[in-house]
Amino acid sequence: MTKSIDEELPEEESYFERIELFVDPGQRPLRIDKFITDKVANASRNKVQQRITDGEVKVNGLSVKSNYKTKAGDLISFVMERSRKDPDVIPEPIPLDIRYEDEHLLVVCKPAGMVVHPAHGNWTGTLVNGLAYYFKSLPELPGNSGRPGLVHRIDKDTSGLLVVAKSEKAMTHLAKQFFDHSIQRSYLALVWGEMKEEEGTIDVPIGRGLKDRKVMQVYPDGETGKSAVTHWKLIQRLRYVSLIECTLETGRTHQIRVHMKYLGHPLFNDPVYGGDKIRKGTQFSKYKTFVQNCFELLPRQALHAKSLGFIHPVSGKEMFFDSEIPADMESVIQKWKNYVQYQK
């Protein structure tokens, strides 16, 4: 019997799935690589053997060798690329802000307004279109058609760092780190309202909205949704808004945006979760004009994926990358600092 457990990668539906195979009582002993190849549609013998060599295939929680013979009642678990049928990616000469690159991976800083991968309504002009042109011959990895190299993503109007795999080995290793929640990610966010505490943790499940599947919502009672944990720390109070740093244990779609709305502090100028209206402040026309000017300077949610840390999939070294605050977000933060100073 085969059981698939979906795991959601950061800000996106999973590009991978965790597979569990139960060996039925009547199953005759069989080499584990052949057993998996027979059971899983997109699993080649070479691919499975590589997973086993890397210690990523577990039997009853323990790593085994390729010649292990399955026994009735065994529970086999591993991660495999999800099968997809996406159109071919059109290579486009799109400028890429590459912060690091070696033969196994690269780290890129995505600008706000750029979609990460082609999808309905955005078949061109995406980060992946630019990557396809930059790499020329970057292979379409099995199960990741239309999204070469991607193991995670960030929203169109969120800026910041992304890691891109250049080989199947790198992709699998990085994907496992996301599954294990061992990736270090910090975001800088400007939110409405003055945070009363210096730091806190939001541990509330998130799932698709019941009325609109494109909008996420919290499920405090845990009746549905997936586990979502966000840690936040106050950086600076700016009278009617606050600058905070968020770190993620999980990576659900719109996680920070949804969790901050739940706290009553939606992201500044977030049109989906209520931050594109004046939530705190005075009724004076000068204040309204000031906020409107800020909205025009930052025509998106005030969220930036500032840092990213992971273990290199081949060398095993700890890698850490940090990025500067983008100009549009920095200008609005500075305007709020000036506003607070002027009000003293």
From TrEMBL:
It is an enzyme of class 5 (isomerase). Keywords: Isomerase, RNA-binding. PROSITE patterns: PSI_RLU, S4. It holds the Pfam family PseudoU_synth_2. It catalyses: a uridine in RNA = a pseudouridine in RNA. The keyword Plastid does not apply. Signal peptide: none annotated. Belongs to the pseudouridine synthase RluA family. This is Pseudouridine synthase. The lineage of its organism: Bacteria, Pseudomonadati, Bacteroidota, Cytophagia, Cytophagales.
